[in-house]
Protein backbone atom coordinates (compact mmCIF):
# COMPACT_ATOMS: atom_id res chain seq x y z
CA UNK A 1 0.00 0.00 0.00
CA UNK A 2 1.36 3.42 -1.02
CA UNK A 3 0.03 6.84 0.00
CA UNK A 4 0.44 10.04 -1.99
CA UNK A 5 -0.50 13.65 -1.32
CA UNK A 6 -2.45 14.88 -4.37
CA UNK A 7 -4.31 17.78 -5.93
CA UNK A 8 -4.60 21.25 -4.48
CA UNK A 9 -2.17 20.76 -1.61
CA UNK A 10 0.67 19.87 -3.99
CA UNK A 11 -0.28 22.60 -6.45
CA UNK A 12 -0.49 25.37 -3.87
CA UNK A 13 2.73 24.30 -2.13
CA UNK A 14 4.57 24.53 -5.46
CA UNK A 15 3.06 28.00 -5.99
CA UNK A 16 4.14 29.12 -2.54
CA UNK A 17 0.55 29.55 -1.34
CA UNK A 18 -0.81 28.48 2.02
CA UNK A 19 -2.09 24.90 1.98
CA UNK A 20 -5.55 24.87 3.57
CA UNK A 21 -6.42 21.18 3.27
CA UNK A 22 -4.72 17.98 2.24
CA UNK A 23 -6.12 15.08 0.24
CA UNK A 24 -4.43 11.74 -0.25
CA UNK A 25 -4.72 8.89 -2.72
CA UNK A 26 -4.00 5.31 -1.64
CA UNK A 27 -2.65 2.84 -4.20
CA UNK A 28 -2.75 -0.94 -3.79
CA UNK A 29 -5.26 -1.16 -0.96
CA UNK A 30 -8.81 -2.35 -0.39
CA UNK A 31 -11.58 -0.72 1.67
CA UNK A 32 -11.27 -3.54 4.20
CA UNK A 33 -7.57 -2.81 4.76
CA UNK A 34 -8.22 0.84 5.53
CA UNK A 35 -11.19 0.06 7.79
CA UNK A 36 -9.05 -2.45 9.70
CA UNK A 37 -6.50 0.32 10.26
CA UNK A 38 -9.13 2.55 11.83
CA UNK A 39 -10.10 4.67 8.83
CA UNK A 40 -13.75 5.75 8.65
CA UNK A 41 -15.47 5.20 5.30
CA UNK A 42 -17.65 8.13 4.21
CA UNK A 43 -19.04 6.76 0.95
CA UNK A 44 -19.85 3.30 -0.43
CA UNK A 45 -19.78 4.03 -4.15
CA UNK A 46 -17.08 6.67 -3.78
CA UNK A 47 -14.15 5.14 -1.83
CA UNK A 48 -13.18 7.99 0.50
CA UNK A 49 -12.00 7.46 4.07
CA UNK A 50 -11.16 9.72 7.01
CA UNK A 51 -7.83 9.22 8.77
CA UNK A 52 -8.38 8.00 12.36
CA UNK A 53 -6.35 10.87 13.87
CA UNK A 54 -6.11 13.79 11.42
CA UNK A 55 -9.55 13.24 9.82
CA UNK A 56 -8.00 14.17 6.47
CA UNK A 57 -9.44 12.49 3.38
CA UNK A 58 -7.82 9.40 1.89
CA UNK A 59 -9.30 8.07 -1.37
CA UNK A 60 -8.50 4.77 -3.01
CA UNK A 61 -6.94 5.12 -6.45
CA UNK A 62 -9.73 4.79 -8.97
CA UNK A 63 -10.78 5.02 -12.58
CA UNK A 64 -14.09 6.43 -13.77
CA UNK A 65 -16.31 5.45 -16.66
CA UNK A 66 -19.01 7.81 -17.89
CA UNK A 67 -22.56 6.48 -17.79
CA UNK A 68 -25.47 8.84 -18.29
CA UNK A 69 -25.57 12.62 -18.25
CA UNK A 70 -24.33 15.32 -15.95
CA UNK A 71 -21.54 15.33 -13.41
CA UNK A 72 -22.81 12.41 -11.31
CA UNK A 73 -23.17 9.77 -14.03
CA UNK A 74 -19.91 7.89 -13.40
CA UNK A 75 -19.05 4.30 -12.49
CA UNK A 76 -15.94 3.98 -10.31
CA UNK A 77 -13.44 1.13 -10.27
CA UNK A 78 -11.21 1.14 -7.19
CA UNK A 79 -9.60 -2.30 -7.21
CA UNK A 80 -6.09 -2.58 -5.71
CA UNK A 81 -4.45 -2.92 -9.14
CA UNK A 82 -5.40 0.64 -10.19
CA UNK A 83 -2.14 2.56 -10.65
CA UNK A 84 -1.34 6.09 -9.54
CA UNK A 85 -1.10 7.26 -13.15
CA UNK A 86 -4.53 5.78 -13.93
CA UNK A 87 -5.92 7.77 -11.00
CA UNK A 88 -4.18 11.00 -12.03
CA UNK A 89 -5.30 10.87 -15.66
CA UNK A 90 -8.97 11.19 -14.65
CA UNK A 91 -8.28 14.56 -12.96
CA UNK A 92 -9.27 17.85 -14.55
CA UNK A 93 -6.10 19.92 -14.99
CA UNK A 94 -2.43 19.03 -15.27
CA UNK A 95 -1.62 21.32 -12.33
CA UNK A 96 -4.03 19.24 -10.22
CA UNK A 97 -2.58 15.92 -11.42
CA UNK A 98 0.71 16.06 -9.51
CA UNK A 99 1.26 13.63 -6.62
CA UNK A 100 3.82 13.73 -3.83
CA UNK A 101 5.18 10.50 -2.36
CA UNK A 102 5.86 10.09 1.33
CA UNK A 103 9.58 10.71 0.73
CA UNK A 104 8.76 14.11 -0.81
CA UNK A 105 9.40 13.13 -4.44
CA UNK A 106 6.91 14.26 -7.06
CA UNK A 107 5.06 12.10 -9.57
CA UNK A 108 4.08 14.28 -12.53
CA UNK A 109 3.14 12.21 -15.59
CA UNK A 110 1.30 15.05 -17.37
CA UNK A 111 3.84 17.90 -16.98
CA UNK A 112 1.84 19.79 -14.39
CA UNK A 113 4.99 21.42 -12.96
CA UNK A 114 5.84 22.84 -16.37
CA UNK A 115 2.33 24.27 -16.69
CA UNK A 116 2.64 25.79 -13.22
CA UNK A 117 5.85 27.52 -14.28
CA UNK A 118 4.23 28.67 -17.55
CA UNK A 119 1.12 29.79 -15.66
CA UNK A 120 -1.17 27.70 -17.86
CA UNK A 121 -4.34 25.77 -16.97
CA UNK A 122 -4.55 22.78 -19.32
CA UNK A 123 -6.87 19.77 -19.28
CA UNK A 124 -5.30 16.37 -18.70
CA UNK A 125 -7.24 14.26 -21.20
CA UNK A 126 -10.29 14.15 -23.45
CA UNK A 127 -12.23 12.68 -20.51
CA UNK A 128 -12.35 16.26 -19.20
CA UNK A 129 -15.44 16.92 -21.35
CA UNK A 130 -17.40 14.16 -19.61
CA UNK A 131 -17.91 16.29 -16.50
CA UNK A 132 -19.74 19.63 -17.02
CA UNK A 133 -18.88 20.77 -13.49
CA UNK A 134 -15.32 21.22 -14.72
CA UNK A 135 -16.45 24.25 -16.74
CA UNK A 136 -17.10 26.11 -13.50
CA UNK A 137 -14.06 24.63 -11.76
CA UNK A 138 -11.69 25.84 -14.47
CA UNK A 139 -13.31 29.28 -14.39
CA UNK A 140 -12.83 29.32 -10.63
CA UNK A 141 -9.15 28.29 -10.83
CA UNK A 142 -8.50 30.82 -13.60
CA UNK A 143 -10.05 33.51 -11.38
CA UNK A 144 -8.24 32.45 -8.20
CA UNK A 145 -4.81 32.46 -9.88
CA UNK A 146 -5.44 35.45 -12.15
CA UNK A 147 -3.22 37.59 -9.92
CA UNK A 148 -0.33 35.21 -10.68
CA UNK A 149 -0.81 35.59 -14.42
CA UNK A 150 -2.49 32.25 -15.11
CA UNK A 151 -4.37 31.80 -18.37
CA UNK A 152 -6.40 28.96 -19.85
CA UNK A 153 -4.61 26.96 -22.56
CA UNK A 154 -6.12 27.67 -26.01
CA UNK A 155 -7.08 24.03 -26.56
CA UNK A 156 -8.73 23.89 -23.13
CA UNK A 157 -10.64 27.12 -23.73
CA UNK A 158 -11.85 25.77 -27.08
CA UNK A 159 -13.04 22.62 -25.31
CA UNK A 160 -14.86 24.68 -22.68
CA UNK A 161 -16.62 26.70 -25.39
CA UNK A 162 -17.70 23.50 -27.14
CA UNK A 163 -19.05 22.10 -23.86
CA UNK A 164 -21.05 25.27 -23.24
CA UNK A 165 -22.44 25.20 -26.78
CA UNK A 166 -23.48 21.58 -26.20
CA UNK A 167 -25.55 22.87 -23.23
CA UNK A 168 -23.54 20.84 -20.71
CA UNK A 169 -24.07 23.59 -18.12
CA UNK A 170 -27.81 22.86 -18.23
CA UNK A 171 -27.17 19.51 -16.53
CA UNK A 172 -25.82 21.13 -13.35
CA UNK A 173 -28.12 21.59 -10.38
CA UNK A 174 -28.83 25.11 -9.15
CA UNK A 175 -27.27 24.25 -5.79
CA UNK A 176 -24.03 23.13 -7.44
CA UNK A 177 -23.77 26.32 -9.48
CA UNK A 178 -24.23 28.43 -6.35
CA UNK A 179 -21.61 26.37 -4.49
CA UNK A 180 -19.01 27.16 -7.16
CA UNK A 181 -20.01 30.85 -7.00
CA UNK A 182 -19.66 30.76 -3.22
CA UNK A 183 -16.17 29.24 -3.47
CA UNK A 184 -15.10 31.93 -5.92
CA UNK A 185 -16.51 34.64 -3.65
CA UNK A 186 -14.44 33.16 -0.81
CA UNK A 187 -11.36 33.31 -3.04
CA UNK A 188 -11.93 37.05 -3.45
CA UNK A 189 -11.90 36.60 -7.23
CA UNK A 190 -15.57 36.53 -8.19
CA UNK A 191 -15.24 39.31 -10.76
CA UNK A 192 -12.62 37.29 -12.65
CA UNK A 193 -14.80 34.17 -12.35
CA UNK A 194 -17.67 35.98 -14.06
CA UNK A 195 -15.37 37.36 -16.75
CA UNK A 196 -13.99 33.91 -17.58
CA UNK A 197 -17.52 32.51 -17.82
CA UNK A 198 -18.46 35.34 -20.16
CA UNK A 199 -15.40 34.66 -22.34
CA UNK A 200 -16.57 31.08 -22.96
CA UNK A 201 -20.25 31.98 -23.37
CA UNK A 202 -21.30 30.48 -20.04
CA UNK A 203 -22.32 33.43 -17.89
CA UNK A 204 -25.99 32.63 -18.50
CA UNK A 205 -25.67 29.71 -16.06
CA UNK A 206 -25.78 32.37 -13.33
CA UNK A 207 -27.90 35.03 -15.04
CA UNK A 208 -28.88 35.62 -18.67
CA UNK A 209 -29.64 39.23 -17.63
CA UNK A 210 -26.13 39.70 -16.25
CA UNK A 211 -24.68 38.11 -19.38
CA UNK A 212 -26.58 40.60 -21.56
CA UNK A 213 -25.15 43.52 -19.55
CA UNK A 214 -21.56 42.24 -19.28
CA UNK A 215 -19.00 44.54 -20.85
CA UNK A 216 -15.51 45.89 -20.16
CA UNK A 217 -16.91 48.84 -18.22
CA UNK A 218 -18.90 46.63 -15.84
CA UNK A 219 -15.93 44.27 -15.50
CA UNK A 220 -13.57 47.10 -14.50
CA UNK A 221 -16.18 48.58 -12.17
CA UNK A 222 -16.48 45.26 -10.36
CA UNK A 223 -12.69 44.85 -10.30
CA UNK A 224 -12.41 48.12 -8.38
CA UNK A 225 -15.17 47.12 -5.97
CA UNK A 226 -13.69 43.73 -5.17
CA UNK A 227 -10.22 45.24 -4.77
CA UNK A 228 -11.66 47.65 -2.20
CA UNK A 229 -13.48 44.79 -0.42
CA UNK A 230 -10.24 42.77 -0.30
CA UNK A 231 -8.45 45.80 1.16
CA UNK A 232 -11.07 45.95 3.92
CA UNK A 233 -10.80 42.15 4.33
CA UNK A 234 -14.52 41.77 3.66
CA UNK A 235 -15.37 38.09 3.29
CA UNK A 236 -19.16 38.08 3.82
CA UNK A 237 -20.71 36.30 0.83
CA UNK A 238 -23.86 38.43 0.79
CA UNK A 239 -21.90 41.71 0.85
CA UNK A 240 -19.70 40.58 -2.02
CA UNK A 241 -22.45 39.12 -4.19
CA UNK A 242 -24.46 42.33 -3.86
CA UNK A 243 -21.70 44.19 -5.70
CA UNK A 244 -22.68 42.31 -8.85
CA UNK A 245 -26.43 42.70 -8.50
CA UNK A 246 -26.44 46.48 -7.95
CA UNK A 247 -26.44 46.83 -11.74
CA UNK A 248 -29.61 44.73 -12.06
CA UNK A 249 -33.30 45.38 -11.42
CA UNK A 250 -35.23 43.81 -8.54
CA UNK A 251 -36.94 41.41 -10.94
CA UNK A 252 -33.58 40.38 -12.41
CA UNK A 253 -32.20 39.74 -8.92
CA UNK A 254 -35.24 37.61 -8.11
CA UNK A 255 -34.62 35.66 -11.33
CA UNK A 256 -31.04 34.92 -10.25
CA UNK A 257 -32.27 33.87 -6.81
CA UNK A 258 -34.62 31.40 -8.46
CA UNK A 259 -32.12 30.29 -11.09
CA UNK A 260 -29.26 29.33 -8.77
CA UNK A 261 -31.13 29.11 -5.44
CA UNK A 262 -29.48 31.98 -3.62
CA UNK A 263 -29.56 31.65 0.17
CA UNK A 264 -32.23 33.94 1.60
CA UNK A 265 -29.76 36.28 3.28
CA UNK A 266 -27.84 36.76 0.01
CA UNK A 267 -31.02 37.38 -1.98
CA UNK A 268 -32.47 39.78 0.60
CA UNK A 269 -29.35 41.92 0.93
CA UNK A 270 -29.05 42.13 -2.86
CA UNK A 271 -32.67 43.30 -3.11
CA UNK A 272 -32.44 45.78 -0.23
CA UNK A 273 -29.20 47.28 -1.56
CA UNK A 274 -30.60 47.65 -5.08
CA UNK A 275 -33.84 49.20 -3.82
CA UNK A 276 -32.30 51.73 -1.42
CA UNK A 277 -29.03 52.65 -3.13
CA UNK A 278 -30.45 55.87 -4.64
CA UNK A 279 -31.77 57.23 -1.33
CA UNK A 280 -28.82 56.23 0.84
CA UNK A 281 -26.19 57.40 -1.66
CA UNK A 282 -27.80 60.79 -2.34
CA UNK A 283 -26.06 64.04 -1.45
CA UNK A 284 -29.38 65.51 -0.30
CA UNK A 285 -31.90 62.77 0.50
CA UNK A 286 -35.30 63.89 1.74
CA UNK A 287 -36.28 63.09 5.31
CA UNK A 288 -39.38 61.27 4.05
CA UNK A 289 -37.31 59.06 1.74
CA UNK A 290 -34.87 58.23 4.54
CA UNK A 291 -37.74 57.43 6.92
CA UNK A 292 -39.35 55.17 4.31
CA UNK A 293 -36.01 53.44 3.85
CA UNK A 294 -35.68 52.86 7.61
CA UNK A 295 -39.17 51.38 7.74
CA UNK A 296 -38.69 49.12 4.73
CA UNK A 297 -35.41 47.82 6.13
CA UNK A 298 -37.11 47.33 9.51
CA UNK A 299 -34.32 49.31 11.14
CA UNK A 300 -36.21 49.18 14.43
CA UNK A 301 -35.86 45.41 14.84
CA UNK A 302 -33.05 44.60 12.33
CA UNK A 303 -30.41 47.35 12.62
CA UNK A 304 -27.73 44.98 11.29
CA UNK A 305 -29.59 44.86 7.98
CA UNK A 306 -29.25 48.64 7.61
CA UNK A 307 -25.55 48.46 8.48
CA UNK A 308 -25.02 45.81 5.81
CA UNK A 309 -26.69 47.91 3.11
CA UNK A 310 -24.49 50.88 4.02
CA UNK A 311 -21.43 48.63 3.75
CA UNK A 312 -22.56 47.31 0.35
CA UNK A 313 -22.86 50.89 -0.89
CA UNK A 314 -19.50 51.87 0.59
CA UNK A 315 -17.79 49.03 -1.27
CA UNK A 316 -19.58 49.96 -4.48
CA UNK A 317 -18.29 53.55 -4.25
CA UNK A 318 -14.95 52.66 -2.61
CA UNK A 319 -15.75 55.15 0.13
CA UNK A 320 -18.53 55.72 2.67
CA UNK A 321 -21.78 57.14 1.27
CA UNK A 322 -22.03 60.94 1.05
CA UNK A 323 -24.09 61.53 4.23
CA UNK A 324 -22.78 58.53 6.16
CA UNK A 325 -22.46 60.22 9.59
CA UNK A 326 -25.89 61.79 9.34
CA UNK A 327 -27.45 58.49 8.26
CA UNK A 328 -25.85 56.63 11.15
CA UNK A 329 -26.69 59.28 13.77
CA UNK A 330 -30.27 59.69 12.55
CA UNK A 331 -30.78 55.92 12.67
CA UNK A 332 -29.30 55.62 16.16
CA UNK A 333 -31.43 58.41 17.61
CA UNK A 334 -34.62 57.34 15.83
CA UNK A 335 -34.21 53.78 17.14
CA UNK A 336 -33.81 55.13 20.65
CA UNK A 337 -37.37 56.52 20.68
CA UNK A 338 -39.32 54.36 23.12
CA UNK A 339 -43.09 53.83 22.74
CA UNK A 340 -43.33 53.64 26.53
CA UNK A 341 -42.87 57.39 26.73
CA UNK A 342 -46.10 57.88 24.79
CA UNK A 343 -47.96 55.35 26.88
CA UNK A 344 -46.83 57.29 29.96
CA UNK A 345 -48.39 60.38 28.41
CA UNK A 346 -51.74 58.59 28.26
CA UNK A 347 -51.66 57.95 24.51
CA UNK A 348 -53.48 54.71 23.65
CA UNK A 349 -54.12 52.24 20.83
CA UNK A 350 -53.27 53.12 17.25
CA UNK A 351 -52.30 56.63 18.32
CA UNK A 352 -49.14 55.20 19.92
CA UNK A 353 -47.85 54.13 16.52
CA UNK A 354 -48.71 57.51 15.03
CA UNK A 355 -46.86 59.35 17.79
CA UNK A 356 -43.88 57.01 17.52
CA UNK A 357 -43.59 57.53 13.78
CA UNK A 358 -43.95 61.29 14.09
CA UNK A 359 -41.21 61.44 16.73
CA UNK A 360 -38.87 59.36 14.59
CA UNK A 361 -39.58 61.50 11.53
CA UNK A 362 -38.86 64.70 13.47
CA UNK A 363 -35.47 63.32 14.47
CA UNK A 364 -34.70 62.45 10.87
CA UNK A 365 -35.79 65.92 9.74
CA UNK A 366 -33.11 67.30 12.01
CA UNK A 367 -30.55 65.75 9.70
CA UNK A 368 -32.26 65.90 6.31
CA UNK A 369 -34.52 68.56 4.84
Describe the structure.
Belongs to the tRNA nucleotidyltransferase/poly(A) polymerase family. This protein has helices at 8-15, 31-36, 84-88, 112-118, 133-144, 154-165, 174-187, 190-199, 208-213, 216-231, 237-245, 250-260, 264-281, 287-296, 303-317, 324-335, 340-344, 350-365; strands at residues 2-6, 23-27, 40-41, 48-50, 57-60, 63-66, 74-77, 99-100, 106-107, 120-121, 151-152. It is an alpha+beta fold and 369 residues long. The chain folds into 3 domains: 1-131, Beta Polymerase, domain 2 (2-Layer Sandwich), CATH 3.30.460; 133-206, Hydrophobic Seed Protein (Orthogonal Bundle), CATH 1.10.110; 276-309 and 323-365, no CATH class. A hairpin with a 7-residue loop joins β6 and β7. α5 packs across α8, α13 (264-281) crosses α15 (303-317) and α16 packs antiparallel against α18. The longest helix is centred in the C-terminal third of the chain and has 18 residues, at 264-281.
What is the CATH fold-level name of the largest domain?
Beta Polymerase, domain 2
| pLDDT averaged residue by residue | 94
Straight-line N-to-C gap: 77 Å
Beta-strand content bin: 5-15%
The low-confidence runs, each spanning 5 or more residues with pLDDT under 50, are none
Number of domain units: 3
Sequence of secondary-structure elements: EHEHEEEEEHEEHEHEHHHHHHHHHHHHH
Radius of gyration: 26 Å
Counting DSSP E segments of at least 2 residues, the number of strands comes to 11
| Shape designation | elongated
Tally of helical segments: 18
- Text of the CATH class of the largest domain: Alpha Beta
How would you write the strand order of the largest sheet?
Answer: 3-4-5-2-1-8-9
